[in-house]
Design goal:
- This protein is α/β, with parallel strands linked by helices.
- The protein is built from twelve helices and eleven strands.
- The strands form three sheets. A six-stranded parallel beta sheet has the order 3-2-1-4-5-6, with helices on both faces.
- A hairpin with a 6-residue loop joins β7 (about 215-220) and β8.
- α3 crosses α11 (about 270-285) and α8 runs antiparallel to α9 (about 240-250).
- The N and C termini lie far apart (about 65 Å).
- The chain binds 1,4-dihydronicotinamide adenine dinucleotide and oxaloacetate ion (OAA).
- 1,4-dihydronicotinamide adenine dinucleotide binds next to α6.
């Protein structure tokens, strides 16, 4: 027999879900309703997703709920988080899920987080470049980063919102102004370029993509996406025509999806997969696992540019080491020069947005 008080508590927990308070009307009751019924959080990290109700946000939230390294998962958006949170909280995995709706709940959503993943913002339509998203997404990223400053200045930030080449410098400027900037903790997510490169190269080589590792450096737009096909593992060689075609397809991977989706958005499912792959690497680094290396767009001294994507070693404090680019062939050196020109402008645009 259970003691009466424990039985009463159990009944109260069940009836809270049978008669849920209105999430949108009552700020704090929304949190109660969304609390997962797992018996106490498993040991692990606290992760927030900002933009959690979007095309990337929803599958990303689902995959993070499955991740055993996550004990608490906060889902924040300006729309639809009650439904997404209720849905995801029914999954019988360890992480406790809570939902947060609208800017008044941003600081609460971020309180005490170890890792913040940001896929908030508008996606492209056919005919647009990622830079065309700047005017809307720059302001969104600034607001969200101001929330991070207030509630979890020591969190690792994984920034997905485009144009990544500019939004990462924007985030850095917000953190610098607040005096909380640590370059190791701010990472632009370029993992989808690596995921695509692994897939397309594996197709050409007739290999399982899981066996292939292609470093992709530079940034995350057009010619700034520079796959290093001379450094593919396992070692292999390509004809000049294959190099041209593979490079172009990897650089245009995003556009390929935007066009196929014909006005309904850009990559969401492969991006959620890539974001989780990257977030999981960051969490394993935070846990202290050794030897975790992934490509990311970070503050960097490997070129003369202040931000650059390349392989970084992830550890307890974030991107602990930016690894050298390794030997580039002539084709890649030419690509690097083109990438740097465009990157320099995108970085400057982001910095000026905050400084102006
Ligand atoms: N880094 C990368 O490799 C990739 C980046 N992206 C970018 O990710 C972003 C999101 O893409 P999708 O999820 O497809 O877009 P979406 O429109 O489906 O979802 C975006 C979500 O952000 C939310 N949002 C808007 N303003 C917000 C704010 N102030 N605070 C919190 N949430 C807010 C929206 O309500 C929406 O739920 C886009 O900028 C897209 O270009 C997309 C694919 C790959
Ligand atoms: O292409 C887009 O706009 C979305 C994106 O960044 C990608 O899929 O790589």
């Amino acid at each position: 027999m259970q003691p009466a008080s424990e039985a009463n508590q159990r009944i109260a927990r069940i009836s809270a879900h049978l008669h849920p308070p209105n999430f949108q009307m009552e700020e704090s009751s929304g949190l109660r309703r969304a609390n997962c019924r797992a018996k106490g959080a498993a040991p692990g990290f606290k992760v927030a997703i900002l933009g959690a109700a979007g095309g990337i946000g929803q599958p990303l939230a689902m995959l993070m709920k499955i991740n055993p390294l996550v004990s608490v998962l906060h889902l924040y958006d300006v729309v639809n988080t009650p439904g997404v949170t209720a849905d995801i909280s029914h999954m019988d995995t360890g992480a406790v899920v809570r939902g947060f709706l609208g800017q008044p709940q941003l600081e609460e959503a971020l309180a005490g987080m170890d890792l913040v993943i940001i896929p908030a913002g508008v996606p492209r339509k056919p005919g647009m470049t990622r830079d065309d998203l700047f005017n809307i997404n720059a302001g969104i990223v600034r607001t969200l980063c101001e929330g991070i400053v207030k509630s979890c200045p020591k969190a690792i930030v994984n920034l997905i919102s485009n144009p990544v080449n500019s939004t990462v410098p924007i985030a850095a400027e917000v953190f610098k102004r607040a005096g909380t900037y640590c370059p190791k903790r701010l990472l632009g997510v370029t993992m989808l370029d690596v995921v695509r490169a692994n897939t397309f190269v594996a197709e050409v080589l007739g290999l399982d993509p899981r066996e292939v590792d292609v470093p992709v450096i530079g940034g995350h737009a057009g010619v700034t996406i520079l796959p290093l096909l001379s450094q593919v593992k396992p070692p292999c060689s390509f004809t000049p025509q294959e190099i041209d075609q593979l490079t172009l397809r990897i650089q245009n991977g995003g556009t390929e999806v935007v066009e196929a989706k014909a006005g309904t958005g850009s990559a969401t499912l492969s991006m959620a997969y890539a974001a989780v792959k990257f977030a999981d690497a960051c969490l394993r680094g935070l846990r202290g696992d050794a030897g975790i290396v992934e490509c990311a767009y970070v503050a960097s001294q490997v070129t003369e540019l202040p931000f650059f994507a390349s392989k970084v070693r992830l550890g307890r404090t974030g991107a602990e080491e930016v690894l050298p680019l390794g030997p580039l062939n002539e084709y890649e050196r030419a690509g690097l020069e083109k990438a740097k020109q465009e990157l320099a402008e995108s970085i400057q645009k982001g910095v000026s947005f905050i400084k102006k």
